[in-house]
Design goal:
789 residues; alpha+beta; 19 helices; globular
Length: 789
């Protein structure tokens, strides 16, 4: 690892200790919200009146600690290096004084302090081009993608786009790296991305997040959470009120337009779901879930405006309330401009622009950041919740919960829910055994409870280790074949030369092509005949390798069995997603659907439009640029001089000149139902579609019950006895947990072609054959503080 320092400022220790609790009341239910930080700069609480419009709201709260800051920090640059005001010094001062909170202008100004260097541009573009042109497996199809329903995927000429960036002079260094990242994001392949770690050190968040529903015959945007420690004018009375307008435009249209610019999926509906807040399974094994802000309210890219203006109408919420209204509870309409705040995610101290650049921007600087996890108990606290939830139906009974999955029984007593939140490690000890045990214990609990049908809830699962997905598949269908996941690779001239050198010059330990298996014989390949001379794929330009698969998954082999060992028949299983089931999750879901005919349900998106139930199945991903380039160069250098032609010399990628990360899909997953197609560009819509409602968003049990009724109808089975369901008042406990470092790959072992997710610091083994590159500031959660009930 380039730099694995874990030095932290003392103020950041107090950041964890200064956790506050919020209680949010939503109708009759006790809802729990996120409260990330205490903002020492904000004035005292100020309740919004019933009708409120104030165009003169300060763009950022006043800070008593910033007496030395200029009165207009957008334009004052009168001191510091080269006579410029040092915004990085200001950011460091504000972070230290305010528990990691940095004003928008200070974070933005710090990013924009560094001058554009054409040499950095040229070398960066050359490195990115060399990697993508030789190894990106979708390089050809990106130029002429197939038409896909409910998709706006456009052709992307990677070489032409990168040449254009390489010929452009930018205002500053940040603008260059942002433009390069934007060009690659047009692929709409979340596995393929570029980011400069210099400009990932602040996380920009809004004090209000939203969710989308279809109610009363129209699409609506509602308030999901308020963080009144960032803006004390906000109160929990606004939660579940409708956001009618954002910056003067219809709110749903604004979020839809924002989602169109993102690369999370090739499906419009899935991108919309991702922009909104969602309730996520807690990966620490806690009985609570947590609300994620969604990408509209939480961004790593600098927002274009200092504030977002929201028009909020609580009339509908008040009119639906059955409780006696007090004067303060009368219908309100509110317009308020909310400032962006930046959370300092740096892992080591910086004092000014030179130290910031040295530690986070140079080629050998640190590649880790802190990650802030918004932990909150949910309305559907499965460990201790009310019995009745919605329209007289009963709350699901939790059978078992672990770090990676939870298992529930619905009110009919025969339909179970297997909620799989991730296939990515959570840094706990024995993480592999913990995952397998989580699955084994959950299936044993469902069997003991007499489950006859199963809903597999894969909402917001962004994948992880491929063998973990295989383990779930094998558990559901014990007679699964040895190699269900089949890949192929791009057979470019450089790739063919490296594959040949791997075996000819004994470079297995260095090569990106070591450990591959022939899916027919089950034996590891021992020569380059799988790569040379290369095969053609129907409808594709260029040549590709023969089909290969991954190395042996030991744990999977231990649970192989006969078909009648399965706990559920295929027709008694449903897959439930909001479309954002990616990578390993997508490959698992597609295998279940294509091989075994498991039916699918998608929720959310755009009302009345079909939606894919998976996204970015892609394949194995290279996400550690430094190790990848080192391996390529080692294998190339093993070749004799006469084999290193000038043409090949120009194709070998060089390291990035600045602190950046390039990830790309290295191997493509072949379809299980059509051998000539790749899963990434096959859009398979869900068989059933449902909309989110407020109840379905807030309470997973309501959604699961609705899914059961939609597909199987109302069950005639007797409901469990009342005392089988725990009944207790939920407790409102919220905290912003500072999770420590967010690793970025320098110590990921042989991770570029192996496994897990990009933000994983664990040593990789050969069985981990997938890598994620998503939400690097939100992903890979370390064990958070266990809350008492």
């Amino acid at each position: 690892m380039v730099n694995s320092g874990h030095v932290q400022r003392r103020s950041l220790k107090s950041f964890i200790l200064n956790v506050t609790q919020l209680i949010m009341v939503c109708g009759p239910a006790l809802l729990l919200l996120t409260a990330p930080v205490a903002n020492a700069r904000t004035p005292g609480p100020k309740r919004l009146p019933r009708s409120y419009t104030d165009p003169n709201i300060p763009l950022t709260p006043a800070s008593p600690s910033s007496s030395s800051s200029p009165s207009n920090i957008d334009t004052a640059r009168t001191s510091g290096p080269a006579g410029r005001f040092d915004y990085c010094a200001m950011a460091a001062e504000e972070s230290n004084a305010n528990n990691g909170i940095v004003p928008y202008q200070a974070a933005k100004g710090c990013y924009e302090m560094f001058e554009f260097d054409p040499n950095v541009r040229d070398q960066t573009v050359q490195s990115v081009r060399a990697n993508l042109e030789s190894f990106y497996v979708f390089y050809d199809i990106a130029k002429s993608p197939p038409l896909m329903e409910n998709s706006d995927l456009q052709p992307v000429d990677l070489t032409g786009s990168l040449i254009s960036v390489g010929n452009t002079t930018f205002r500053d260094d940040y603008s260059f790296h942002a433009a390069l990242a934007q060009q690659i994001s047009q692929l709409q392949d979340p596995h393929t991305s570029y980011k400069s770690m210099c400009y990932q050190q602040f996380l920009f968040i809004q004090p209000l997040s939203t969710y989308g529903v279809y109610e009363e015959g129209r699409s609506q945007v509602k308030v999901a959470t308020v963080l009144n420690k960032l803006d004390p004018r906000l109160t929990t009375s606004l939660v579940d009120c409708e956001v009618t307008h954002i910056d003067g435009q219809p709110a749903f249209d604004v979020v839809t337009k924002f989602a169109e610019t993102k690369s999370y999926s090739k499906d419009r509906g899935v991108r919309l779901n991702k922009a909104f807040s969602y309730l996520a399974h807690d990966r620490t094994g806690s009985p609570y879930d947590r609300y994620a802000l969604g990408t509209f309210a939480q961004r790593t890219k600098v927002p274009s405006n200092v504030t977002i203006e929201y028009k909020i109408d609580c009339t509908g919420k008040r009119s639906r309330s059955t409780s006696t209204s007090t004067p303060e509870e009368k219908p309100i309409q509110t317009t308020v401009a909310l400032a962006w705040s930046a959370l300092d995610a740096t892992m080591i101290p910086y004092d000014d622009a030179p130290s910031y650049h040295r530690q986070f921007c140079s080629q050998n600087s640190i590649q880790t950041v802190k990650k802030f996890v918004l932990d909150s108990a949910s309305a559907d606290d499965f460990g201790a919740g009310r019995t009745d939830l919605h329209n007289g139906r009963k709350k699901s009974k939790e059978l078992y919960r672990g770090s990676y999955a939870s298992f529930h029984m619905l009110s009919d007593g025969i339909t179970a829910v297997f909620r799989l939140g991730t296939e990515s490690p959570n840094k706990q000890e024995n993480y592999k055994a913990g995952f397998y045990q989580n699955i084994d214990n959950g299936f044993a609990a469902m069997d003991a409870a007499g489950a006859k049908r199963l809903i597999i809830d894969l909402q917001n699962n962004t994948g992880g280790i491929i063998c973990w997905g295989r383990y779930v598949l094998q558990t559901l269908f014990p007679n699964t074949v040895d190699s269900p996941y089949i890949y192929s690779l791009r057979a470019s001239p450089l790739a063919q030369a490296l594959a040949k050198a791997t075996f000819l010059y004994d470079q297995d330990s260095n090569s990106p092509y070591e450990g591959l298996v022939d899916p027919i014989t089950g034996e590891e390949v021992s020569d380059d005949s799988w790569m040379n001379p290369g095969d053609n794929l129907k409808g594709r330009n260029g040549t590709f390798s023969k089909k290969i698969t991954d190395r042996f998954c030991g744990a999977v082999d231990d649970i192989k069995g006969a078909a009648d060992d399965a706990l559920f028949e295929a027709e008694d299983i449903l897959i439930l997603t909001n479309g954002y089931c990616g990578s390993t999750c997508a490959v698992l879901a597609l295998q279940l659907h294509e091989r075994y005919g498991v039916r699918t349900v998608a929720v959310g998106g755009h009302h009345g439009q079909s939606m894919a139930f998976t996204s970015f199945p892609g394949g194995a991903v290279q996400a550690n640029n430094t190790l990848w380039v080192q391996r390529v160069q080692k294998v190339f250098n093993s070749m004799p001089i006469h084999a290193k032609t000038p043409q090949l010399e120009t194709l070998v990628p060089k390291p990035l000149p600045a602190n950046g990360q390039l990830a790309f899909t290295f191997r493509q997953v072949m379809s299980a139902s059509d051998e000539g197609k790749v899963s990434e560009y096959m859009r398979i819509p869900s068989e059933f579609r449902m909309d989110y409602t407020s109840a379905r968003f807030r309470m997973p049990s309501v959604l699961w019950e609705d899914v059961r009724e939609e597909v199987w109808g109302v069950s005639d089975s007797p409901e469990p006895a009342e005392d089988e369901f725990e009944s207790a008042e939920s407790t409102a406990q919220e905290e912003m947990v500072e999770e420590g470092e967010e690793p970025t790959g320098e110590d990921q072992g042989e991770g570029e072609v192996l496994g897990g997710e990009e933000d994983d610091e664990l040593e990789r083994t050969a069985e981990e054959a997938d890598r994620e590159d998503l939400e690097w500031l939100q992903r890979f959660e370390a064990p958070s503080k266990v809350r008492s009930k």
